[in-house]
Design a protein that fits this description.
Largest sheet: 7 strands, antiparallel
Radius of gyration: 32 Å
Helix content: 40-55%
Strand content: 5-15%
Number of helices: 19
Distance between the termini: 78 Å
Low-confidence stretches: 1-53
Number of strands: 16
Length: 546
């Protein structure tokens, strides 16, 4: 597509400002050595400016390319998405990342090698990608590479270039989509993925020659260019479930937050250590003076180091050793998820959820406050839908972890599930094992309180119709002390009769007509007299032991 430059076209008037925000810049595309500094920028700038004046290129522009704002560190992926949209392909930057084969646990977007893999898999002819430039002959060789780029532009083929973001010595490397050239001003036209609404921006060709070469060695430099020649483009669609790209973004966000957390914890620990030292000095002084002194109770602070394990659909983050975090991830989380999905849940949660495994009481209490801004309301752990997180004191064991894993799956598969079933199913698997390959609830500590309530002549156990009919507020805030246990051991009875899974699935299908699940319960039990059934259930419970 060879086009004459039209100065009145709005694309050519917009974004003449040379300055660009660094918002949403990615990580370096390579590991940048700091040996080559601003002096080389100045050298190449002065040399190439004079050389560029001798060159002559016609104006050319690939028009109507939509601009896309990159996600964090997805600058190359966003560049590809922009041109794919121009070609009518509904392939987004997430899909491009997913073709790269890069592990989300790396916590970054594609470097050049991974982007090359992704673009080839999408169906682009990308050329050789890496080119070597002699520093001594850089002006001529860079102009030769630009000539190839310009020739492609004349054929309607844009390029993704890897370059320094700006002239600063510490500038990161960054991908930009080059779409044209203005002969009148000797400017390169490009889409800037890191800045909102930054379509058809401009930089002088001399500036491009400053930013483009990557100076890993003093004598030979590297130039990176991806041709976007559409050969056999694949059909890509947005995934129905979370993909590697979603988890990569989640890991980047979490690592960024943890980096800030570590700085705060270091400062707070230094302050607390000084306070403790001061109190100890006062105690020693009081002892020496034979005076009484009651020191303040000051809990030492810790600085946590975290390890990550991707255990889909969860991101597991723990401050224990990497081996222990993997052990909990595989031995408890994976074990439970596989069985719960096999028996109950067909859909994963539609958003990334962090599982925080704090290794002991001190870590759990301090980090819950530091990360979420509130004290934990239970010594074991909890699920917070608003924070999209399961927060665990894993030192207390894995029972609460399995319990809480149930809740996000219930939310994804049975959003109208009443609280009694939601908590009953979660608490059923607080103590569990595998029976015939299926997760199987065992008796647990809740049995003792239920026995005491049944035997208490002054206590009237709610009927199952009353239990099923409790609202969320009534279940949690007006609990007579048995709601959890009664729900758990009702489901335990259904499990023992081999009808628990049937009950869950039939209730979920009929919830519109039977929102409490009581009618479905009566039908699945095949019991006409539910009062008589409750007496039978009571005898069943009293025979159980833990």
């Amino acid at each position: 597509m060879n086009m004459e430059l039209r100065r009145r076209d709005p694309h050519w008037r917009l974004h003449r400002d040379r300055d660009a925000s660094t918002a949403q810049l990615g990580q370096p595309r390579f590991l940048l050595p700091t040996i080559i500094a601003a002096v080389t920028f100045l050298m190449i700038g002065s040399t190439q400016t004079s050389f560029a004046a001798e060159s002559s290129y016609e104006s050319v522009l690939i028009e109507e390319v939509p601009h896309v704002l990159q996600k964090r560190d997805f600058c190359g992926e966003a560049c590809a998405e922009m041109f794919l949209k121009k070609l009518g392909k509904p392939i987004d930057q997430d899909f491009v990342f997913d073709q790269s084969g890069l592990s989300p646990l790396e916590g970054r977007g594609c470097f050049t090698r991974e982007l090359a893999t992704a673009l080839r898999r999408v169906g682009f002819g990308i050329g050789d990608v890496w080119y070597s430039v002699s520093a001594a002959d850089s002006a001529r060789q860079l102009d030769s590479h630009f000539r190839d780029l310009h020739t492609d532009l004349s054929k309607g083929v844009p390029s993704i270039l890897c370059m320094h973001y700006d002239e600063r010595a510490e500038a990161t490397e960054h991908f930009r989509l080059v779409l044209g050239y203005d002969a009148e001003t000797d400017e390169v036209i490009y889409h800037e993925p890191a800045v909102p609404r930054a379509a058809y921006r401009r930089m002088t060709r001399s500036k491009l020659y400053q930013l483009w070469p990557l100076k890993y060695e003093s004598r030979r430099w590297t130039v990176v260019r991806f041709r976007l020649d559409p050969l056999r483009l694949i059909d890509g669609r947005a995934a129905a479930e979370l993909t590697d790209a979603d988890y990569a973004q989640q890991i980047m966000r979490t690592k960024r937050e943890l980096a800030r957390l570590k700085l705060r914890q270091i400062a707070l620990k230094e302050t607390r250590d000084a306070e403790i030292a001061a109190e100890l000095a006062k105690v020693e002084a009081a002892i020496e003076a034979e005076e009484e002194y009651k020191p303040r109770k000051l809990t030492p602070r810790i600085v946590s180091e975290f390890n990550f394990v991707l255990e889909r659909p969860f991101l597991v983050i723990g401050d224990d050793s990497p081996a222990m975090v993997r052990r909990w991830s595989q031995g408890t989380i994976r074990w439970a998820v596989e069985r719960l999905k096999r028996q109950y849940f067909s859909q994963n949660p539609d958003h990334a959820i962090n599982i925080w495994l704090f290794k002991d009481k001190q870590s759990y209490q301090q980090n819950t406050v530091d990360i979420f801004g509130r004290r934990p309301h239970t010594p074991f752990g909890y699920y917070s839908p608003s924070e999209k997180a399961l927060v665990m004191n894993i030192d207390t064991g894995g029972g609460t972890l399995v319990h809480e894993i149930v809740h996000p799956f219930i939310a994804a598969n049975f959003p109208d599930c009443p609280s009694w079933l939601n908590e009953g199913l979660g608490s059923l698997y607080e103590q569990c094992n595998t029976t015939n390959g299926r997760i199987w609830g065992l008796t647990n500590w809740r049995l003792r309180g239920l026995h005491e309530a049944i035997k208490n002549e002054d206590y009237e156990m709610p009927t199952f119709e009353e239990l099923c009919g409790t609202s969320t507020r009534e279940f949690y805030n007006e609990d007579p002390g048995t709601n959890y246990a009664q729900s758990r051991y009702l489901l335990y009875y259904l499990q023992s009769e081999g009808i628990l899974e049937r009950y869950y699935h039939e209730f979920r299908k009929s919830a519109t007509d039977d929102p409490t699940g009581y009618q479905t319960l009566q039908r699945v039990l095949d019991e006409e007299n539910m009062e008589a059934f409750q007496e039978k259930w009571t005898e069943f419970v009293l025979d159980l032991r833990f």
